[in-house]
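Lecture 7 notes: from sequence to structure.

We start with a single chain of 238 residues. Read the sequence below before looking at the structure.
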Amino acid sequence: MVREGDYAIEVENLTKRYGDLQAVNGISFTVKKGEVFALLGQNGAGKTTSVEIIETIRKPTSGKVSLLGMDVTKEKHKIVSRIGVLPQGFSSFNRITVKETLRYYSRLFNCKKPDIDGLIELANLKDKSKEQFMNLSGGLQQRLGIAIALVNNPEVVFLDEPTTGLDPRARREVWDVLLGLKNKGKTVFLTTHYMEEAELLADTVAIISKGSIVAMDSPKRAYSKQCQIPCSQASIVR
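Now the structure, written as tokens:
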């Protein structure tokens, strides 16, 4: 039985409108502490808008979102130090090395005892620690982005489409890093449009289409339900 205090994230009737466009349409779900939760959907389905509201970046039109027991619209200053974020299209400073990048962000986030070497090892970047960002492949850059998202030892980590645009090998290398997070018991909120990615990494999958959640379950059962959704709503890459 899951108690109220066991939830890292609670979303209730969340709606976001931009003029006449309804980007998110009354969605509700919970994320348990220590689980990997995947929000799965095609481009434009409402994934990034939803996650940016949870991260306190955007304000909802209506509904309630609680992160670590705090209202995201009222307690942003308390929340931001307890989460880590890898946004879509992550980039960094071209001419500083992997290790220098992590040191920079640790100072920026006012981290008292950052484990820089541990993060480099977790991200499988030990042999690239002295390499400048501009010389890293796309997959290596994403792995560094994940390490940056962890530099403040967050309780909840948000990864917005971390493998989009990567070749299959680089994608699998990023998956290895994400599996390392899962093994450490981190609460991870992942957005993706790859069903294979959700199946491998997630404990729970919510499929979002046109701003509404159309299925939510374990990866296998969620995929089975997705197969029953009309094709116009279910164009997810496998």
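The first strand starts at residue 7 and ends at 18. Keep this in mind for problem set 3.
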